[in-house]
Amino acid sequence: MGGGGSTRRVTFEADENENITVVKGVRLSDSVIDRMKEPSSPGRQHRGSGAVNDEELKKRIAEELALERARRDSEAQKRRLKQEQMYVRDEFGKLLERERISSNEHLTRAILRERAATEEERQKAQRFARQLEEKDRELKKHDAYYKEQLARLEERVKPFFSLLTKSF
To answer: Is 0.90 topped by the overall pTM?
Structure first.
């Protein structure tokens, strides 16, 4: 009767009126005891002065025990389910945290790569700007040198031009 396949022995003691008063070897809940105290239904057979048949009582106790065991099993199953749900929630939380950390690491790496590329471009632009300034200085030097040379040549050629223009 009932679940669990228990091999526990149940013994009954009877009082002087042949009423069962003690059940040894089984712990009964208050609800089971209250139900056992309820008067029998009219369809049941009674022995003598209202005493309940031993077999019927044993059957009733076995049914009550089975119901009590089923209730405890159900409650235990509910507790296990809640524990499993909490475990799953915790695992999902850990998984989400790992994913968040991973995505933050990827984002950080991408930002660092972009910063490095930007810094490289900035340095390249500065290097080109220095080269351009150097070329500009060089061109100005050349320009000044050529102007100076042109001015010298004009000074050398000036006497010849003045002679040529006087003779004509």
So the answer is: no
